[in-house]
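User: My instructor asked us to take a sequence, write out its structure as tokens, and then describe one feature of it. I'm not sure where to start. Here is the sequence I was given:
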Amino acid sequence: MTEVDGSPWQDLPTEISGEELGSLTPGLRQPVAVTGATGFVGSHLAAALVRAGVRPRLLVRDPRRLVPELLGRVELVAGSLEDDGALDALVAGCGTVFHLAGVVRAGSAAEFDRANRLGTERLVAALRRRAPEARLIHVSSLAAAGPSPEPAGRAPEDPAVPVSAYGRSKLASERAARESGRWVIVRPPAIYGPRDTDVLQFFRLAARGMVPLPGGERWVTTAYVADVVRALLAAGYGDHCGRVLHVGDPQPMTMRALITVLAGAGGVRARVVAVPAALLRGAGLVGDLLQRLGARRVALTSDKAGELLARHWTARTEESMRRLGVAGSVPFAAGAAATWSWYRAHGWLPRAKIADR
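Assistant: Let's start with the prediction itself. The structure tokens for your sequence are:
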């Protein structure tokens, strides 16, 4: 247990226990619907609901992308955020709707806007038609708030200043969510954990022994996926409607410290190499070209390069987490170790060769 602002802050386990789920889910009004359940966080949220005895209703394009533990234990609605009929079927009579679907990479600002803003507007319209009393838990992003001018981070009430097309589209999606009758907006920071494909790139670089980062001191807030799921479940009941909440670890880290801890958790040594801003921007332009040629999993685009060059991706999270009743988080070293283990077990990273100490 550590101290945050003089009061106890618990070190939480990487797995949410059945007992903990029992305390997080009884207040959820059912039926419960989820968009984005084939994605990283959405798959963990859906699995937690199932383990808690809830049979969630999931909007999915391709059921083959569901994690195996969900098969036969959920109600499926075939379709997407572009399908008004599917959205009506998804939310009909629901008490709680978790909205996680969206895109984090796109070839243009218009693509981001179409998926993130317009998709949310369509979902809200369906709620008005078929479930006007449902609580909407809208999963946004710290990118909607924008980077912080200081390491301590942005508070939920601070003016939003997004610096990327992705961030602007998520902020627009928040405005759309506010048009629903009962909404809660949750802004996670950089999320990591099993099944993630974005922060995976840093694990791969660390495994190779070298991690390129923009020069200068940069601070970051992170969140292990189980902590985000805890926060989302807690946002589903209680007095949180009409609030924007920042979730994640309350203690930001410098990027250099983060890489050191991440590498140590995986039993490897990694050196941080400063990369000039011009080189990152150039790599982003190459990524833009690859996207236009049809590549859909490009790690670095101009939009992402602009985000990387921002100084502090940090958020003030403690007040929000305590308001949700989650007075703790998974320590980064423990979360990173669990993530290394999962990646290696599933062949996403090579098996460990423990570094000499």
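For the description part of your assignment, you could build on this observation: The first helix runs from residue 18 to 24. Try explaining in your own words what that tells you about the chain.
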